[in-house]
């Protein structure tokens, strides 16, 4: 007979006790997940609130672009000197 995954149980009464433990674990997991999601939403809302406003540009206005935001994919080939 394989051991039951869960708290110690007695022969004949093990399965209901295991189901109670499984439901309790599920309830705790759902509550923890809801709390983490709520906390994440609060942090995101505060970060957005403290983020500086983006500058307003007009059509035709010249602006400087940073290359760190451009996805440039270049494959460099190493050629050894002979």
Architecture blueprint of SSEs:
Blueprint: H1 14-50
Structure report:
The protein is mainly α and 82 residues long. It has a domain at 9-52. It has 1 helix and no strands. The mean pLDDT is 80.
H/I helix tally:
1
The assigned structural class equals: mainly alpha
Question: What best-fitting shape do the alpha-carbon axes yield?
Answer: flat
Q: Report the radius of gyration as a whole number of Å.
A: 29 Å
Strand content: under 5%
Catalogue the unreliable spans.
none
- Summarize the helix and strand pattern as letters: H
* Span of the ends, CA to CA: 71 Å
- The pLDDT mean sits at 80
Main sheet properties: none
What is the total tally of β strands? 0
Helix content range: 40-55%
Looking at this protein, list some descriptive labels.
0% strand, 45% helix, single chain, 1 helix, mainly alpha, 82 residues
Briefly summarize what is shown.
With 82 residues, the chain is an all-alpha fold. It has one helix spanning 14-50.
